[in-house]
Amino acid sequence: MAQEDVFKKLVSHCKEYGFVFPSSEIYDGLGAVYDYGQMGVELKNNIKQYWWQSMVLLHENIVGIDSAIFMHPTIWKASGHVDAFNDPLIDNRDSKKRYRADVLIEDQIAKYDEKIEKEVAKARKRFGEAFDEAQFRTTNARVLEQQQKRDALHQRYSDAMNAGPDLSELRQIILDEEIVCPISGTRNWTEVRQFNLMFSTEMGSTADGSMKIYLRPETAQGIFVNYLNVQKTGRMKVPFGIAQIGKAFRNEIVARQFIFRMREFEQMEMQFFVKPGTELEWFKQWKETRLKWHKALGFGDDHYRYHDHEKLAHYANAATDIEFLMPFGFKEVEGIHSRTNFDLSQHEKFSGKNIKYFDPETNESYTPYVIETSIGVDRMFLSVMSASYQEEKLENGETRVVLKLPAALAPVKLAVMPLVKKDGLPEKAREIIDSLKFHFHCQYDEKDSIGKRYRRQDAIGTPYCVTVDHQTLEDNCVTLRNRDTMEQERVPISSLDSIIADRVSITSLLKKLQ
Ligand code: ATP
C-alpha cells in the first residue's frame, strides 16, 4: 500500500475508534485544531506518563513544574519571540491561499529528489541483479542533471534563509522555479512577508487598562523564569533539570498532516542547567538518553535518526533533532538544543533582577548553561500510531486491522468477554474486572461474536483479551488471547494479574532505560 494511503487510513482509523476528532466538527472544524477522544486521551496520558516518569523518577536531580500559559509579555520580548518568531509567508492572488515560502521551496527540492529516485527505481527494475546503483547515480545523465538543479536550488535557498531571511530573494526563487499554487495552478504570487506565529489576546477589562499578552508558543520560558525559585526551594545543585508538560500555541501558516502540525498542541520539555563549559558533554549525554527513551518502545532502530543542525540559532552552540519515520518520511519529533546561557541572560537583562546561581562548593556565582530536550506530545502520538497501525493478512484469507501499540501505552490493557450473555458468565466476567480494575484499565464486552469482539480490541490495540466460558464456572480458568500472536492459552483467573500487570505497566518501559 502506498504510504499516502496508509496515512489516510490512519487518520480515519483515529476518528472511527475514538482516538482523534477534528475540533468543532459539527461547525465544520477549526483549522489544525484537534480533540482527543476516549481512546486518544488514554494513549496520550500514557505517553506523558512515560516521559514524566523517565525524567522525574529516574533522575534524582530533575523535578517538575506546571507554569501558567499566560506570562508577562516582556518574557517574549526577552526570549526573542516578539521580534523573531516568524515564518515567511506568501499568498496566491487567484486562490487566495496562503503558503510558507520556505515550505514551497523545500517541496520543490523534494520534487527533484523524487525525480532522481524514480530514475533509480526504473533502472533497478530494468537491470535487475546486475544493477550498480552507486555507478548509476554518478554517471546517468538524467540523474546528474536533476542533481545539479537540486543542489543549485538548495544552495540558493540556504543563502536566502541565512541572509535574514532575504524575502525578495525567496520570492524570486519561487518565480524562477516556476512553482505554482496547487489550488489555482497559477504563479500569481504576492510579495513575501514575515508573519509572527504567536497568538495574542488582551488581559484586563478596560480598553486603556488592558495589556496585550501572548499565548505561550513554547513551555520552556515558564521554566527559565522559575529556575531560581525551584533551585532555592528545592535546594537543587547544578547540574539539575526542570521538566514540564503543557499546552503551546502557534499560529502556523500552513497546518498540514493531521496532528503533525497543529495550532494548539502540547509539549514535554526539560531544561537541564549545567556549569558553563560542560554543556557539550551534557548535550551528548542527553542526545543518547533521549534516543534510548524512544527506542525502548520497540518499533525498531531503523525508525529513528538524528538530524544534526548545520545552521544553529544565534543562541545555540549545538542542536539536533530526533527524527521518526512517519508515513510521509523522516520527520522531527524531538529537538535537543544546547541553548548556552542565552535565555537566562536575557531574562536577567530584561527583568533587571539578578538570577545567577550561587555555587556553594566554589563560592562563585554564574549564569548556568542550558541543555533543552523538547518533544511534542501530539507528534509523539502520531509516530506511535503510525508505527503501530497494521493490516495483517490472516491464514483464513481475512484481513485484520491491528494497532500493535507498546502494551504499556495501550489505552485498554485487558478486555473481558463472556462467551454468551447468560448462564452467569457476564457476572463472572464482571467479577474478574472488579478484581483487576485497580491495577490496569479493563473493558467489558459482551456484544457480537467472539471473533468480532477480538477485532474491535485489535483495532484499539488492547494487548490481552480473556474469554469467560461455561468451563470457567467450574475450574476458574479463562482463555487468554495475545493481540500480536493471536495465541490463546488457558490460565487460572488468579494468575491474570501477575501475567498481565507487569507487561502493561509504564514501569516495564522505564526498566529498559536503566
Ligand atoms: P518544526 O520545524 O516542525 O516547526 P520546531 O523546530 O519549530 O518544529 P521546536 O520549537 O523545536 O519545533 O518544538 C519542539 C517540538 O514541539 C517539536 O519537535 C515538535 O515535536 C513539537 N511541535 C512544534 N511545533 C508543533 C506544532 N505546530 N504542532 C505539533 N507539534 C509541534
Describe the protein's architecture and organization.
The chain is α+β, with helices and mostly antiparallel strands. The protein is built from 18 helices and 23 strands. The strands form seven sheets. Strands 3-9-10-16-13-12-11 form a seven-stranded mixed sheet, with helices on both faces. Strands 20-19-21-22-23 form a five-stranded mixed sheet, with helices on both faces. α2 (38-56) packs across α18 and α5 runs parallel beside α8 (167-176). It has three domains: 1-67 and 217-393, Bira Bifunctional Protein, Domain 2 (BirA Bifunctional Protein, domain 2), CATH 3.30.930; 87-189, no CATH class; 403-513, Rossmann fold. The radius of gyration is 27 Å and the shape is globular. Bound molecules: adenosine-5'-triphosphate. Adenosine-5'-triphosphate binds next to β10, β13, β16 and α13.
